[in-house]
Structure formats: C-alpha cells, structure tokens
Amino acid sequence: MCTKHDKPLELFCKTDQTCVCMLCSVFDHKKHDVVLLKEEYDGKKVELGKTGAEIQQMIQKRRLKIQEIKHSVDLSDKNVDREIAEGVQVFTSLKESVERGLNELINTINEKQKTTEKQAEAFIKELEQEISELMKRSTELEQVLRSEDHLHLLQSVQSLNIQQPPPTKDWTEVKVCPSSYEGTVRKAGAQLEETLSEEMKKLLAESELRRVQQYAVDVTLDPDTAHPKLILSDNGKQVNYVDVRKNLPDNPERFSKCVSVLGKQSFSSGRFYFEVQIKGKTKWDLGVAKESINRKGSITLSPQNGYWTIELRNRNEYKALTGPGVRLSLKSPPQKVGVFVDYEEGLVSFYDVDAAALIYSFTGCSFTEKLFPFFSPYKNDGGKNSAPLIISPVKVN
C-alpha cells in the first residue's frame, strides 16, 4: 500500500524507479514515464533472466579456465618429470663417458709403466746371469791363484781357459728411460672432449626427437588426391606405384601427372608429427603441402610452389627441395623418416627416426592456409623401387 495515499501500489514510475499508486501517478508523477506494475515486472524478469544466464556463462567460463589452468599444471608436471628424466639420462651418460675416459687414461699410464718395468726386469735378469757367470769365473781364478804348484797353475789356465773373462754384453749404452707421460693427459682430454661433444649431440638429438614425437597425429592417405597409378591400402597407410593407370575421375583434388598423394588430415595451427617407413626404396618424396597447390601437369616441388619436402634419388642421393635444392650428407640411409611441423613458428623438420638425428629443417616459413602431409613413392624404377611408403605408428624411444 502507498504510505501517502493508502492505495495499492499498482504502477511503476520508470523515471524515479519506484512503485506508486494511482494517485501518486496523477499528482506526484504526472509527467513521468509510468507503466503498470505487471508490465515492469515482466520486463525486469526477462532482464534478470538474461543477467542470470550471463552470470552462469561467466561461471562456466571461469570453471573451464580453472580446468584449463589445472590441465596446464598437469602438463607442466609431466614436462618437469620428462625433462628431469632426460636431464638425468644426459648427465649420467656424460658422467659415464668421463669415467670411461679417466679409466682409459689410468690404464694407459699403468700400461706404460708395466712396459718399463718388464724391460727393466729383463735387463736385471740378464745382468744377474752375467754376474753369476763372472762370480763363478772369479771363484775359479781364486782357487788357481792359491795354488803353489807351478805346473798345476799353468795346466789349469790352459785347460779351463780362465785367463779371459766369460763373454758378456757391452752394457755401456743400455739404459732404461723413465716412461714419459707428457701429453698423455692432454691427448686424453682432447679425445674426451670430442667424445663428449658427439655424445651430447646424440643425446640432445634423441631428446629433441622425443619432444616432437609427443605431437604425433594419425595420418591416412586421401584416395581422392592419389595419382591414377598409385594403389592405396585399405587402411590408408600404404601407397604403391603400379604401371597400369586406373580409370579414375579427374577431380580437382587429384594429381594428374605427379605420382603423389596427400593425407586426408589438414592442419592450420599448432604442431603435428608423423612417421613414414621408406625401407627398401631408391626414390621418394616426403613432406607437407599447402591446400592451394597446383595438382595438374608437371610440378616443381619447392616452398615457392607450396611444397616443403625432401627427396631420395639413386638410393643414396638426398636433397632438401628448397628451390635450387640442397644436397644432404647423411651418415647412413634412414629406414624411417619423421616429419614435424610447427605452424606458428613456420618450421618443417625431418628426422632419421632410428638414428634420432635431424636430417633437415625449413625455417622462417610463412603458413597462411591448411597444410597436408605429402607423399610420393615415385616410379618403380624397373622393380628396384617397388617397396611401398608406409605411414607408421609413432613409438617414443
């Protein structure tokens, strides 16, 4: 009830934002925006409903953010454990290398000393033998010299031939030089430095490969893009070249001359990684390609044309197709190649999976559209290159 007019509060003054009675609206709120209380109630209820929904959305967003933060912390915990484990592995290996180097140095010095001791022992033994012979001759001489019998002395000298010393070695120039260890530690240190450098490179490469392998994705081949002379396996994981051209529709996605095929999966952000077995092949092309690439007629694989790839020719000639191309020197032929892409960083890297070694990286790339995995098993080369390209499951070492 209105305290001033003792009438029901049936109206609402929007100007003053207060409930009023009929008389209030006539006298006190005559020029104000006055509506029925029910009308204002309905309007406010709708507004409050919207506000409530917005608040619920805000609550949900914050709960999701909490989950996101907790997930980040969990990932960070896993990363910490992984990095500590890798750090322990790296430094344990380096420590073992240092210990091996120290043991080898000590053994080298001890072996030199043993050689010196053996030489000295041989000389001493020979000298002692000569001393024994000389002492025997000296005793014989003393016995003869004690004789007063002239005939006996002369006969003894003649029969025993004791007038001359027994044959001996001339020891004047014989010496045992103390072993020289000059440069031994320096040489061992240089060898250790080289070993540690190689070990560090290997361990860091293994660590880097494990890092990119965590971004492994499931890639399958897209039959709509495959050249008509390519055969795909039912599971979309293998591709072979055959000499017979299949009768397939020449849709826009299909390669018409280049014997290639794309993966079904596309990527336009983040990081992704996949592995391809190339064992037994003499020629192939691997990498990624952007969506708008030319797929008809002759194609030159290069970043300028939307391809980031490496190739093998003639069994052992590897090249990064950068435009003119960069020859790659590999210690051994890879059996499995890993392909890693960091979209935002503009990076495409290729790895020898078994050797845990980086083959080549395209850096500073500018990606603005979808990227697809790219495969070319190349022609059979008279049966020498008939092995398939196989997309392999990723096994973290």
What does this structure look like?
There is one protein chain. With 397 residues, the chain is an alpha+beta fold. Helices cover 39% and strands 19% of the residues. It is built from four helices and 16 strands. It has helices at 22-27, 37-145, 150-160, 184-213, and strands at residues 11-13, 18-20, 34-36, 230-232, 238-241, 261-262, 271-277, 284-290, 307-313, 317-320, 326-328, 336-342, 347-352, 357-362, 371-376, 389-392. It has a seven-stranded antiparallel sheet, covered by helices on one side. Strands 6-15-8-9-10-11 form a six-stranded antiparallel sheet, with no helix packed on it. A hairpin with a 4-residue loop joins strand 13 and strand 14. Helix 2 (37-145) runs antiparallel to helix 4. The protein is elongated and about 175 Å long. The chain starts with 10 loop residues before the first strand and ends in a 5-residue tail after the last strand.
What is the helix tally? 4
Q: Percent range for helical residues?
A: 25-40%
Terminal-residue CA separation: 81 Å
Outline type: elongated
The helix/strand class is alpha+beta
Number of strands: 16
Radius of gyration: 46 Å
The unreliable regions are none
In what order do the strands lie side by side in the largest sheet? 4-5-16-7-12-13-14
| SSE order | EEHEHHHEEEEEEEEEEEEE
Q: Average pLDDT value? A: 89
Strand content: 15-25%
The biggest sheet, with number of strands, parallel, antiparallel or mixed sense and barrel status, is: 7 strands, antiparallel
